[in-house]
Each structure stands twice: as C-alpha cells, then as structure tokens.
Design goal:
Number of helices: 9
Shape: globular
Radius of gyration: 16 Å
Distance between the termini: 34 Å
C-alpha cells in the first residue's frame, strides 16, 4: 500500500482538497493520499471523520487527549506527530502534554479519566465500571459515545498507518525520547 503521487486525476484532486484544511498551504498529507487509493471509501468515511474532528461534543482539549493517547499507544507516530504539530496550543493541550501522552504517562486529574478510558478501550474494548462512573460525572452519555468512537476511529487510522508503513511528514513532531 502506497499513497498516490501527483499528478492527481480531477476526482482525486477534488477529494484531497476536501480532506485538507482550507488555506493550509501544505501538500496533501500522505494519509489522505493513501485514502485516495480508494476514493469511494474515502468519500464515505470523510463525513464521519470530519464530524469527530470538527463537530464533536467533546472539547478540543479532550478530543486531542483521546487522539494523542490512542495514536501513541498504537505506535502511530505519523498521526500523533501531525496532531502534536497542528493542534498543540490551539486545542488547549500543550506540546509537553502530547509528549507525556506519547511516553505512556497519565495526565493529572481531571484529564486522567480520559487516559484511563482510552487505555481500557484499547486493551479490552470496553470500559470498567469505575471508569464508566468517573466519565459519567464529567460527560453526557452522548459525549461518552463520542469518546468511544473517537478512540476506535483513531485506532483504525493507526492500524492503516502502521500497516502501510506510512513515512512521517517532514514537518511533523516526532515521539519524545524516553530518558
């Protein structure tokens, strides 16, 4: 599996334009060019992915904690690095916190519940009673459903990235080195 290279067919160019942030000034991401290998599937998943990333019920900070923990735990440095570069600061999550999540450490309360939830979902595909209870004190049922699907979506993305051995974007952050 390899991402497609330019020149792009008109349909693929249109798809890539929809997938990229407007006015980013960047070439289409390798991940998006990989999606474009199967344009019909890419068109079907785009609304779901965009909904999770841009129109969700979780705060930007909480969303990025879930994404950073999921992609780091799945060893998907490509996606972790894209998010650590694009969303650090603007999401309310600092680059140092992305690094903590990449190292497998937990953030302090109240963010620890998100880390625990992601770890449980990745390990057992379910939530313990104590984590469900902790989430219920902070989030609505709709937000918990979103958290579960967000974790699953980024696990799927991590699996695709790793299976394709997608090379890192040259401008993206890399995992910190454990000392």
């Amino acid at each position: 599996m390899r991402p497609i290279d330019p020149p792009y067919e008109p349909r693929v160019a249109e798809l890539l334009a929809k997938l990229m942030p407007p006015d980013s000034g960047l070439e289409p991401l390798a991940l998006f060019r990989l999606f474009a290998v199967h344009p019909e599937l890419a068109e079907r998943i785009r609304p779901f992915a965009s909904g999770l990333l841009n129109h969700g019920l979780l705060s930007a900070r909480d969303r990025e904690i879930v994404i950073a923990r999921t992609t780091a735990a799945c060893d998907a440095e490509y996606e972790w690095g894209v998010h650590a570069t694009f969303f650090a600061g603007s999401s309310g999550l600092g680059r140092d916190e992305y690094d903590v999540l990449a190292m497998g450490d937990a953030l302090p309360e109240p963010d620890r519940v998100l880390v625990n939830a992601v770890d449980e979902l990745l390990d057992a595909a379910t939530l313990s009673d104590s984590t469900r209870s902790a989430l219920a004190t902070r989030y609505s049922d709709a937000q918990v459903i979103e958290l579960v699907l967000l974790t699953g979506w980024y696990r799927s993305i991590a699996t695709l990235i790793n299976a394709a051995r997608l090379p890192l974007e040259p401008w993206a952050a890399t995992f910190p080195v454990r000392r």
